[in-house]
Amino acid sequence: MQYIKHFNQQSDKYLSYRPGYPEPLFDYLASLVDEEVYVWDCGTGNGQAAFALARRFQRVLATDINFLPLVLASQRENLHYLCCAAEKSPILAESMGLVTIAQALHWFNFDDFYQEVRRVTKPMSTIAAWCYALVTINAHLDPIINKLYTDILGDQYWPKERRYIDEHYQTIPFPFKKLAVPQFTIEKKLDFASFVGYLSTWSAVKEYQQRRHKNPIDIIFNDLQAAWGNPKSEHVMRWPVHLLVGVIE
Predict the structure, then answer these.
(1) Gap between the Cα atoms of 31 and 84, Å rounded
(2) What are phi and psi of 162, to 5 degrees?
(3) Are the C-beta atoms of 207 and 6 separated by less than 8 Å?
């Protein structure tokens, strides 16, 4: 899958510019299972979720099919990284009590991945997957961001899997007993340069650059800069978290 390769590029930018996940989300996950269970964070990227989980659980294994993000991932003694596909891992059977997938489930082969989840988990384990969709800031900036997202990039450059995020994970296959979940929101303050850096991490921006040899952000740059105001000023970015939690029966 060609879009997966984009996450092997400029991995340091993902660590700097991508939003982290809210601490209350991990507190909630920790309330669902015992802290002694072994946690598998699948599609971990640079380990943002895995590191937070490792502060709440005794053992965390984080895996990703791309190697370079793992090199930059945050380290803890009880957190171990492994480069492998989500659908075929060397994890021991019935060894996991919690499986988490942050902003990655839509990339997987669902049937094969869920078969692997059932293989590696103990009976009545928990699986949690979440995503965040398009950022919102304010009434001046949001239409410009939407222009980049929808009009300039659109279906031509966004991968087809992106639709699951646009649909808030409500249509993604999830064959487990779903639990009612609380609502969470990601918030992060960025100045103008950092926000442009964040936009540059979009997979569709990278796809556009690869195909057309120019940066689509340049098309909206002047409008974005004018609407932002002082480039050193920080605006609050908001991303609603769309969370699925299920019991693996």
Answers:
(1) 29
(2) -60, -25
(3) yes
Residue 10 to residue 237: CA distance in whole angstroms? 22
Distances (CA, A) of 214 to 102, 173, 200, 207, 217: 30, 36, 12, 10, 9
Token representation of residue 132? 């965040």
Q: Which residues of 104-113 are buried (b: 16+ CB within 10 A; e: fewer)?
A: bbbbbeeeeb
149: DSSP letter: I
Confidence of residue 18 (pLDDT cuts 50, 70, 90): confident
Name which of 235, 243, 224 is nearest 180 in CA terms. Answer: 243
Percentage, residues of the chain above pLDDT 70: 94
| The pLDDT of residue 61 | 98
Task: Give the number of other Cβ atoms within 10 Å of residue 40's Cβ.
Answer: 30
b/e 175-214 (16+ beta carbons within 10 angstroms → b): ebeeeebeebebebebebeebbbbbbbbbbbbbbbeeeee
Distance of CA 147 to the CA centre of its chain: 22
CA distance 19 to 195: 11
Over residues 74-121, the pLDDT tens digits come to: 999 999 999 999 999 999 999 999 999 999 999 999 999 999 999 999
Pairing between β-strand 96-102 and β-strand 121-132 as defined by DSSP bridges: parallel
* Domain ranges for the chain: 2-248
**Superfamily for domain range 2-248:** Vaccinia Virus protein VP39 (3.40.50.150)
